[in-house]
Amino acid sequence: MSVRSATRLRRLRTPRAARRHPRASLIVGVSIILGVLLLGVLRPLMGLPAPDTQNLADVLASPSWAHPFGTDNLGRDVLSRTLAAAHLDLAVAIALTLMSLASGVLLGALAGFGGRRTEAVIMRLADAMLAFPFMILVIAVVAVFGPGLKGVFVGVPLAGWAIYARVTRSEMLVVREKDYMLAARTLGYSRSRMLLRHALPNVWRPALVLSTADVVLNLVLLASLSYLGLGVQPPTPEWGGIIADGQQYLLQAWWISTLPGLVVVLVGAGFSLIGDGLADLLGQEVRLTA
Amino acid sequence: MSSDVVLRVTDLTVEFPSAPRPVRAADGVGFEVRASEILGIVGESGSGKSVTLRSLIGLVPGTGAVVAGSAVLDGTDLLALDGKSWAQHRGSSVSMVFQDAMSSLNPVMSIGQQLCEVLRIKGGLGAKDAFETGVGLLERVGISAARQRMANFPHELSGGMRQRVMIALAIAGDPKVLLADEPTTALDVTIQDQILALLADLQDSLGMSMILVSHDLDVIGQACDHVCVMYAGRVLEYGTAEEVLRTPRHPYTAALLASVPRVRTGEAAQRRLATIGGQPPELDQLPPGCPFAPRCPHVAPQCAQAPMTLDRPSPAHGTACIRWGDSADD
Fold it and tell me: What is the interface pTM, i.e. ipTM, of the complex?
C-alpha cells in the first residue's frame, strides 16, 4: 500500500516537466513562499486598512478594489488580515517542522547506530506516538497547557518526531554498514564522532524531504487548531481563525473563508514544489508513509 | 633488510558462531612482520586472509570473534585490547587500506575535511597545521594540484586518486603497520602498478611495515618480501616471496601458481589453463588433517593425520605439507 500510494502521490504532485527540471519546481516553490512572506511584510505600504481596524459601516462587503478579499462581519479587511497572518503562520509551521525534524533525526540516527537496547526504547516510543491519532495527541497536550501557541509547540514535536525517527533509522541501518563507516572506524574515531560527523550527514536527507510535506501538514494543523479555538487566540489574525470566523457567513459572504483558504492552498502547493524539487535534486523519493 | 620483528602474530584463531559447531575462519595463523618490509598474504576467497587482517585492527566482521592467539606490536598484544584502547591504536599503530576506494571515502565530506580530521584527532594538530600537513600528504601520495584537491569531494576523483587519498588517510597517523586489503583489486592494471609502487615507496621512505592481502600472485610477487599462503583458514606455506613463488613447497601453492594465466605462443597456447579440481572446503566441514587433501594431486592416507604446522620455523621457508619431500619425486 505504501509503495502504491507513494507513487501515486509522486505522479500527482510532480508534473513531468518539473521532474526533468528539479530546479524549476524548487524556484517556483520558493518564489511562492517568499512572495507570500514579502506581501506580508509590504502590507503596511499597500494602502490597506490595518488588520484590526473595524468599519461597521462596511461589513460583509464583497471583493472590490478597495478590499480585494472583501470584508468580514466586523468590517475588517480580509486581505489585510490574511497577509498579516502570513509571517506568523509560516514561521510557526516551519518552526514546528524543524523541531520535529531535528529531534526525530537525532533520535532515529541514535536508534539505528546505537545498541539493541537504545534502538528498542526509541523505536517503541516512536511506534507508540505513531499509533495515536496525531491530532488527538496534540489536542490532549494543548488541553494540558491551555489554548495558545505554547501547547502547540510542545504537542506537535512530541507527536511529530516519530515519523522522522523511523525514516532516519532505516537510512542509518544502511549507512552504518557502508565501507566508509568501516574505514572511519579503522582510523580510531570515537563512536560519538562516527555518529555525528560521519553517519548523520549521510542519513538526514530523506527526513528533510519528508519535512517539506510536513510543513504543509503543520500549517493545516495550526489552522485547524485555531479553527477549533485551541491555537492562536483572537484577535491575532491567523489563517485558521480567519477561515473559522468566516464559516458562519459562508452563504452571505463566501470570500471571508474561501479566499484565505486559497492562500493556504497556494502556500501548501509552494512547499510541495520545494519538496519535489529537493527530492529530485537529492535523489530521494517522497515517502509520506514510512 | 633488518630482522627486527615489529608485529608477531601467533596462533591467531577466529571463530564465527554457527550450529552445530562454530566455524573457524582463521585457525592457528602465525607470521611475523619485520621492520620496513611487506608481508603478503595470498589465498583464494574464503581462505581467511581478510578475516586475519581485520582481526589485527580489532574489526572482525559480523559475529566473529578472536578466540585464541596473540598479535604483539611493540610489546602490546593487539588481540587483548578493549574497545577504548583500540580507538587509541587504530590509525596510529595500525591502519588499513581497503579494496574498494570508491566506497571507502565518506561521500559528504571533502578530501580536505577527511584528511584534516585524522590529522587533528590523531596528530593533535591545529586546523591550519592540519591543512598544510594534509596538502603535504596528498603530494606525498602523488596527487597533483593537492591544494585544489583538498576542496574536492570523493565523487570528483578517479578511482586511482581515491585510493591514493585512502592511503594518505591511512598513513596520516604515522602507523607502524599498514594493513592493505586487496588495495589494487578494484583498479585497472596500469593504476594497480602505480598504487603498488606508491605503497612500496611509502613503506620504504616512512620505515613502515605492511601486510598486503591479495589473491593476485603477480601483485604479491611484485611487492612483497615474505609471503604467507593461506587456505581454509590455515597457513600452508610461509617464506620469502622469491622462494615461495619460485620453488613452492606446498602442492596448493604449486597448483595456484600453475593456474595463473600467461600469454603463450605456438603449441602452448592451445593447452588448457591448469585448474585446481574441486571446490574449496566448507569451513564447517573441514576434512581431518590437511584441508587441501581432497583436492591434492599428491594425497596419501597419512594426510588425514597431518598436523597443520609448518615444518620449519619462520623465517625459513616452511610448509605444512608432510609429503613434500616425497611428492617432489612424483
Answer: 0.82
